[in-house]
């Protein structure tokens, strides 16, 4: 179980959970926030906000395709890391509608 107690006021636990997963993926691929921000055309502080749960998940989903391209992996692999098929969190419908991850629904 992931640690979400003691979150700052206004931090959505789901946004925090997603941000922590994305942080783990970024670190696994050996990117700093600065490097990844440059590749995405975003500031490192905006990425830090995502990783710390300060950005709505719906806005974060827009980055899955570009992140997958940068990491050289299929977008569905990121989605599966965020929403494991055997996990307690179902893939949100708005994410399934994304062209980058349409095939995830077929596998679930």
UniProtKB/TrEMBL annotation:
SUPFAM superfamilies: lambda repressor-like DNA-binding domains. CDD domains: HTH_XRE. It comes from the Bacteria. Gene3D superfamilies: lambda repressor-like DNA-binding domains. One of its GO terms (molecular function) is DNA binding. Residues 22-78 form the HTH cro/C1-type domain. InterPro entries: Cro/C1-type_HTH (IPR001387), Lambda_DNA-bd_dom_sf (IPR010982). This is Helix-turn-helix transcriptional regulator. It comes from Actinomadura rudentiformis. The lineage of its organism: Bacteria, Bacillati, Actinomycetota, Actinomycetes, Streptosporangiales.
């Amino acid at each position: 179980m992931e640690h979400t107690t003691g979150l700052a006021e206004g931090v959505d636990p789901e946004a925090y959970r997603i941000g922590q997963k994305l942080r783990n993926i970024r670190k696994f691929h050996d990117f700093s926030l600065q490097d990844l921000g440059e590749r995405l055309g975003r500031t490192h502080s905006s990425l830090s906000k995502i990783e710390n749960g300060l950005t709505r998940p719906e806005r974060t989903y827009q980055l899955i395709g570009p992140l997958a391209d940068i990491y050289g992996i299929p977008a569905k692999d990121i989605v599966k890391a965020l929403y494991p098929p055997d996990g307690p969190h179902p893939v949100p419908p708005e994410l399934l509608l994304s062209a980058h991850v349409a095939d995830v629904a077929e596998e679930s």
